[in-house]
Amino acid sequence: MGQPLNLKPFYVALAVIAVAGAAFIINSRVSAPTVTLVPAGTTPAFPGHTMGSDSAPVEIIEYADFQCPACATFAILTGGDVRRKLVATGRVRWSFRDFPLPGHDKAPLAHLAAACAGEQNRFWEMHDQLFFNQGTWTRERRADRIFEQYARTIGVDVDAYRTCVAEQRHMARIAATKESGIALGVGSTPSFIVGGRLVAGSISYANLVQLVEQAEAPAGGR
User: Fold this and answer.
1) How far is CA 105 from CA 65, 66, 109, 201, 214, in A?
2) Which of 80, 147, 151, 166 could form a disulfide with 113 if both were Cys (CB 3.0 to 4.6 A apart)?
3) Phi, psi of 67 (to 5 degrees)
4) How far apart are CA 105 and CA 187, in angstroms?
5) How far apart are alpha carbons 199 and 203 in whole angstroms?
6) Would you give the end-to-end CA distance of the chain in angstroms?
7) Residue 75 predicted with pLDDT over 60
């Protein structure tokens, strides 16, 4: 079942990183998206961290890496519109799936931190902390300490969080989720699956809406 949408942490985090986020966006490079069909018959065991109604007519699956600058740009620039205009209105159900990239040394731990926060229904709050503060923790030698600070900030039980991280409880599942993405043709981040189409690369809100409309059309929605 999809997690109920709570916009308050999003706006709190946005206010905290507004100045740093603006500078980050200006310096980020966004690649042009490419669209291909998703191979049929591949169903991952883990559906992803979800938000929105299970009855939403369109599901969008995002494969992302918390250390990927283009993924952070999408979260900061487009995430708010997605939550307000597509998810909160019942039009879209959003699913986030882990895809840590080789060479991003802190990405596996970041994905583990988000998954451990998710055990306490705080995945999306940690998601925002990681993306909106990406320019900070990626420069630190002990990112684990910063992630624990984020966990405390978003109100999780820190002792339970520490145990989850120490046991690396979700690492095997994160790796399996990435493999399922590879089987679907995912090779870079961010990548999105909308209505059977795999979109590789950052995408604007306007282009995302076009894909949603195309996904709605076969059901007679548009």
Assistant:
1) 11, 11, 8, 21, 37
2) 147
3) -100, 5
4) 18
5) 8
6) 27
7) yes
Q: What is the pLDDT of residues 34-68, one digit of tens each?
A: 777 776 656 667 889 999 999 999 999 999 999 99
- Which conformational region is residue 49 in: left (phi greater than 0), alpha (psi within -120 to 50 degrees), or beta? beta
Structure tokens at 144: 């684990």
Residue 17 has pLDDT above 80, yes or no: no
pTM of structure: 0.82
Q: What is the largest CA-CA distance in the chain?
A: 53
Distance CA 51, CA 133 (A): 21
| CATH number assigned to the domain covering 8-16+31-67+74-219 | 3.40.30.10
Q: Where do the structural domains in the chain lie, given as residue ranges?
A: 8-16+31-67+74-219
Token pair in block for residue 61: 């699956």
Average pLDDT for residues 175-204, to the nearest whole number? 93
